[in-house]
C-alpha cells in the first residue's frame, strides 16, 4: 500500500486476540496491540488478558516480576553490606589508617611492589626488596594476592569515602532488591564489584593501589537504569546522577579510580540485562547460568592480565 505521493503506508495494527479489529492501543507489559474489549486498566496504561493472567500467576506463586522471592525487609541486604564495609573501615582506622598494613593486604594492586615510606623501588623484586633501605614488599594480584579482587570492594580509608558510598548503597540497594529479590540483588552487587576490579586490573597503572565500594555502587546505578528502561519508567533523574558521577570521575581521575567506576557501571548494566530480559521459560536457569558465565568471563580476563603482568 502507498500514499498519494508514492511512499509506503504502515498497516494499522490489529488486536492479537481479535485479528479483525484495528487498534493503536498496546499492552504496557508485552507491547502487543489490544482492542477495547481486551484492555485491562493497570497502574500505568493498559495490560492484555495474557499479561493479567501471568501477573496473577506470578503473584500467587509469591514471585517478583523477574523471578526473585519477595523479602519482608528489602533493605536488609544493603544494611548487612554497609555493616561489613564499616567493620573493615574501623579495622583499618584503628590500625593506622592509610599507613595500616591492612591497606596493603586488602587494596587492589595489579603488580606487587617494594615500598619504602611514601615511595617505592620500581625495579626491585620481592627477592631483593628486603635489602633495600626501608624496603617492604606489598603483594599484588599478579603475584598471588587474588583475594584483593574482592576485598578491595569492601575497604575504605577516608571517612568521606565510606560515608558517600554507604549513603548511596542505603538509597539504591533496597530499590533494586525490591524488584529483583535478595539473591539476584546480591549477585548484581558482588559481580559488579568483580567487574570493577577486573577493569582496574586492565586499565589502571601496574603499581596503582585501589580500594572502595564505588565500583559496586556504580553497578547498582547501571542496573537500576536498565530496570527502569525495561519498566518504561522515568529515568531522567537517575541519568542526571549517573552523568554527574561520570563527570566527577573523569575530572577527578588523579585521585578517583575512573577505571573501577567504568567497570562497575558497565558490569551492573549488563548483569541487570541478563536478569530482566531473561526469557520466561526456564527463567531462573537462564539467569543463573548467564550470571555464572559473566563471572567466568571476568576471571578469564583476570587470568590473561595476570599472565601478561607476570
Helix/strand layout:
Layout: E1 40-41, E2 46-47, H1 49-60, H2 76-94, H3 101-106, E3 113-116, E4 119-121, H4 126-129, E5 136-138, H5 148-151, H6 159-180, H7 182-203, H8 214-230, H9 236-251, H10 258-276, H11 283-309
Antiparallel strand pairs: 1-2, 3-4, 3-5
Features:
54% helix, 5 strands, mainly alpha, three-stranded antiparallel β-sheet, two-stranded antiparallel sheet, 310 residues, elongated, 11 helices, 2 domains
Give the class from helix and strand content and strand pairing.
mainly alpha
Give me the number of helical elements. Answer: 11
Counted up, domains total 2
Classified by CATH, the class of the largest domain is Mainly Alpha
- CATH superfamily (homologous) name of the largest domain: Rhomboid-like
What is the string of helix and strand elements? EEHHHEEHEHHHHHHH
Weakly predicted, low-confidence segments: none
Helix content: 40-55%
- Strands of the biggest beta sheet: in what spatial order? 4-3-5
Task: Fill in the CATH topology of the largest domain.
Answer: Rhomboid-like fold
Strands, total number: 5
Radius of gyration in whole Å, from Cα? 25 Å
Q: What kind of oligomer do you see?
A: single chain
The biggest beta sheet is recorded as: 3 strands, antiparallel
Q: What's the end-to-end separation, in Å?
A: 66 Å
Q: Report the sheet-strand fraction.
A: under 5%
**CATH-scheme architecture of the largest domain:** Up-down Bundle
Amino acid at each position: 500500500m502507498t500514499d498519494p505521493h508514492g511512499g509506503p503506508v504502515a498497516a494499522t495494527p490489529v488486536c492479537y486476540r481479535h485479528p479483525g479489529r484495528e487498534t493503536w492501543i498496546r499492552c504496557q507489559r508485552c507491547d502487543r496491540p489490544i482492542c477495547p474489549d481486551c484492555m485491562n486498566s493497570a497502574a500505568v496504561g493498559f495490560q492484555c488478558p495474557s499479561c493479567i493472567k501471568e501477573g496473577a500467576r506470578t503473584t500467587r506463586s509469591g514471585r517478583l516480576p523477574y523471578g526473585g522471592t519477595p523479602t519482608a525487609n528489602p533493605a536488609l541486604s544493603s544494611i548487612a553490606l554497609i555493616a561489613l564495609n564499616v567493620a573493615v573501615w574501623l579495622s583499618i582506622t584503628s590500625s593506622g589508617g592509610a599507613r595500616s598494613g591492612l591497606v596493603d593486604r586488602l587494596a587492589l594492586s595489579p603488580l606487587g611492589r617494594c615500598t619504602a615510606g611514601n615511595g617505592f623501588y620500581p625495579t626491585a623484586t620481592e627477592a631483593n626488596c628486603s635489602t633495600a633501605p626501608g624496603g617492604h614488599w606489598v603483594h599484588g594480584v599478579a603475584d598471588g594476592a587474588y583475594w584483593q579482587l574482592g576485598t578491595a570492594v569492601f575497604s575504605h580509608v577516608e571517612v568521606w569515602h565510606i560515608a558517600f558510598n554507604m549513603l548511596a548503597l542505603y538509597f539504591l540497594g533496597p530499590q533494586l532488591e525490591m524488584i529483583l529479590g535478595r539473591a539476584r540483588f546480591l549477585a548484581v552487587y558482588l559481580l559488579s564489584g568483580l567487574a570493577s576490579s577486573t577493569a582496574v586490573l586492565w586499565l589502571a597503572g601496574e603499581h596503582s593501589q585501589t580500594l572502595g565500594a564505588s565500583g559496586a555502587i556504580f553497578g547498582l546505578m547501571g542496573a537500576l537504569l536498565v530496570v527502569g528502561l525495561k519498566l518504561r519508567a522515568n529515568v531522567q533523574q537517575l541519568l542526571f546522577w549517573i552523568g554527574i558521577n561520570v563527570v566527577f570521575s573523569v575530572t577527578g581521575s588523579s585521585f578517583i579510580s575512573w577505571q573501577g567506576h567504568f567497570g562497575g557501571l558497565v558490569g551492573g548494566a549488563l548483569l541487570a540485562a541478563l536478569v530482566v530480559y531473561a526469557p520466561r521459560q526456564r527463567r531462573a536457569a537462564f539467569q543463573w547460568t548467564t550470571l555464572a558465565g559473566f563471572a567466568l568471563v571476568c576471571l578469564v580476563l583476570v587470568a590473561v592480565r595476570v599472565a601478561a603482568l607476570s
